[in-house]
Protein: UDP-N-acetylmuramoyl-L-alanyl-D-glutamate--2,6-diaminopimelate ligase
Organism: Oceanobacillus indicireducens
Amino acid sequence: MKLSELIQTLPFISLTEEAGEIEITAIYTDSRQVTPGSLFICIEGFQTDGHLYVQDAIEKGARVIIAEKEVESKVPVIYVNDSVRALAIIASAFYDSPTTALPLIGITGTNGKTTVSYLLDAIYNHFGKKTGVIGTIHNKVGERLKETNNTTPDALILQQLFHDMRNSGVEQVIMEVSSHGLDLGRVYGCDFDTVIFTNLSQDHLDYHKNEFNYFFAKSQLFSRLGNTYDGRRKYSIINADDKYVGMLKKTSAFPTITYGIDSEADVMADDIELSQDCTIFQLKTPVGTVKITSRLTGKFNIYNMLAAASAALINDIPLHIIKDTLQVVPPIPGRFETVDFGQPFGVIVDYAHTPHAVKNILETCKELKTGKLYCVLGCGGDRDPAKRPLMAREAVWHADYAIFTSDNPRTEDPRAIIDDMVQALDGYEQTYEIIIDRKAAIEKAMSIAEAGDLVVIAGKGHETYQEIAGEKYPFDDRIVAKNAFLNKEF
Ligand SMILES: CC(=O)N[C@H]1[C@@H](OP(=O)(O)OP(=O)(O)OC[C@H]2O[C@@H](n3ccc(=O)[nH]c3=O)[C@H](O)[C@@H]2O)O[C@H](CO)[C@@H](O)[C@@H]1O[C@H](C)C(=O)N[C@@H](C)C(=O)N[C@H](CCC(=O)O)C(=O)O
Ligand SMILES: Nc1ncnc2c1ncn2[C@@H]1O[C@H](COP(=O)(O)OP(=O)(O)OP(=O)(O)O)[C@@H](O)[C@H]1O
Ligand SMILES: N[C@H](CCC[C@H](N)C(=O)O)C(=O)O
Ligand SMILES: [Mg+2]
């Protein structure tokens, strides 16, 4: 594509006629990947600054540089005031604005995004639509799975994915939109049709600094709905039981549908029965009421089902398809995943990594066990330290006994993370212990649990690695628990 076409919507750019004719073969933000004939965009990051790698990019064949700060270059440089926004505009243009031709659902909120995306994927597939999914566990184009580093990838990867989806005949895209994704401009240029809010509670304060900024980042998904008034039907779907419902309704540029259990809402759940392996409730919608028996457990999963059902209904998926799907959809990997290897007690692996999620999972489990409730829990390194004591407090408040251990320490000292967790647990010393090594902590829980007890292994869910001192090692809570039990002597 010609450079002049790629940058035509960037403000205040003047190009010589000759430069405008340059054919751009690819776009990169990482100099290490640059190929001949490409355009390199300098992005200032958290670890380093893309402006430092201009020479590297040129040596590898970059023909044009986009920069925010002055750089030395023998090839044309286009200066912009916001490289991240320029990246989104250029990537969208390079890949022919794929989201204008792809119905796009965006899901945001502290907890539940992955679960809602799985549910919607299953509903759309059951309805016969080919889907694309972008989220924490993987990205998916039809049946093809692609690995991912981020819940919401940067604009370049996103537009490449959308392009791939459009070329592969995807009819519906379902995407998790993280607060980082919104705040760091990764979703500039995405034309959302339906946006969903699950809930908001404490997380990521290391990045956002306070809850208002965190909320503001999330709320952008709702104001961003208003990008185009081209006749496409657009809706926001909001949790009526969350304290932010009022503010989000005001922010939303298009009609709002609410869902809830306690507050009056358009889509509601009633007559709820929870057990360890199923959930029963009446799904009440403006087009009828149906009874749902789902394999997803926990009150919080009813909210996830309501969110998915609301988004599907408003997009004309018949209620019977929604019901049939919710009845058969299997538990989401690492989300309230029951691990059964013949042991006489229950084991649940769950991705709870916020105070609210730890509280929810343990409150649900309290109702489901007949014996004691154990919780194995750690907190991630290089992530919001403010949530650590709150997560630990929820664990000792709601479990009979907690074992505090490592999650992904990343670049932090594992012991220091646990010290942060236990700093405000005076008076609870008899109800927890510390075992830094996660495998040993799980083994301990497996060795003390007895018939009727329930062990919740929280924080890592589906993850198949543990990141220690910047290195990723194979680690899967489900396998470690199983091996610990099978090697156990009774
Ligand atoms: C803190 C953060 O968000 N970092 C993201 C960021 O990386 P960074 O800022 O560290 O990048 P950097 O290493 O400083 O590099 C700056 C620039 O120089 C370039 N560079 C670098 C070296 C070189 O030799 N040549 C070169 O050109 C890089 O390609 C980059 O363009 O840009 C990368 C590419 O887009 C992201 O993958 C990376 O996410 C990291 C992996 C991360 O852990 N992010 C977390 C905090 C995150 O975003 N989480 C959210 C929410 C999760 C949830 O709750 O669901 C998510 O959406 O994943
Ligand atoms: N609707 C909900 N309300 C509160 N907690 C929930 C809800 N749904 C899931 N959880 C809890 O949060 C954990 C993570 O769920 P899920 O992966 O669906 O959320 P997410 O928003 O995608 O998280 P992440 O931001 O890390 O990707 C679950 O394992 C469960 O403990
Ligand atoms: N998306 C979340 C995942 C946290 C999972 C937990 N296992 C950790 O490593 O902290 C984050 O990046 O904050
Ligand atoms: Mg997720």
